[in-house]
Amino acid sequence: MALAKAINESLRRALDSDPKVLIMGEDVGKLGGVFRVTDGLQKDFGDDRVIDTPLAESGIVGTAIGLALRGYRPVVEIQFDGFVFPAYDQIVTQLAKMHARSLGKVKLPVVVRIPYGGGIGAVEHHSESPEALFAHVAGLKVVSPSNASDAYWMMQQAVQSDDPVIFFEPKRRYWDKGEVDTEAIPGPLHGARVVREGTDLTLAAYGPMVKLCQEVADAAAEEGRSLEVLDLRSVSPIDFDTIQASVEKTRRLVVVHEAPVFFGSGAEIAARITERCFYHLEAPVLRVGGYHAPYPPARLEEEYLPDLDRVLDAVDRSLAY
């Protein structure tokens, strides 16, 4: 099924299995969301469980916090990535802090769904990648699936988590299809996965960039180079052990994400792996991402986003050491 459909089916299962699960957001009910990710859920579960809200992100998250305090498990949708900032205060000062503030007595099982990233030709504030802002905040889990199967199972795990989860959905991959085994036993929510074995260099990515890295590995294979591709899946916490094991084998690492390279999640990965693998690395850890500039108009976004050539250039530079 498509990635968007997998999230829909996962939310349906969560609603069906736990009456305390609620879905809230702008146009999530009658319309089914602007990407139709929640299509049909209000019809089947009622408008008291799939709730169309006013255009007020701070109010959406604030209400979810209150509901979670009363024992509910709200799943809230921020319609587009750039719309999350009116709710940023609620997320970082309340949602992320309540567990510590109450010395562990209060849990806030809230999932904040955020369609994010570019590649769809959208207007301003509709193609941001703000994951590093949330990963910097203690008390939040930050994850992003790259495929339909992970989208289904990671959403299940996010809803069941007693800690708040920021669930970044790569909107350019909503229509990518893949096999989904709804009876499988999922791996850990924050575990990285090797999606392609290789020996010469490791490519690490998450969300929308995993597919690109697989394409890069295909192109490199035509030149006789063997690239290993990691799907990180989680930005906070990060599965550094899996990255380290891969780098100790390949001795080179390139980290790829859509967000700007400057102070991005790739910087943390580069620093940690340099500390952990200093005597294994044969080249500095390189990063490929967006530029330190506002996201451009749609006609220029392909120049802004990482592409096959930019990642291959980083591979070439790493292998040249």
From TrEMBL:
It holds the Pfam family Transket_pyr. Its cofactor is thiamine diphosphate. One of its GO terms (molecular function) is oxidoreductase activity. It comes from the Bacteria. Residues 1-176 form the Transketolase-like pyrimidine-binding domain. The keyword Magnesium does not apply. Keywords: Oxidoreductase, Thiamine pyrophosphate. This is Alpha-ketoacid dehydrogenase subunit beta. It comes from Streptomyces griseicoloratus.
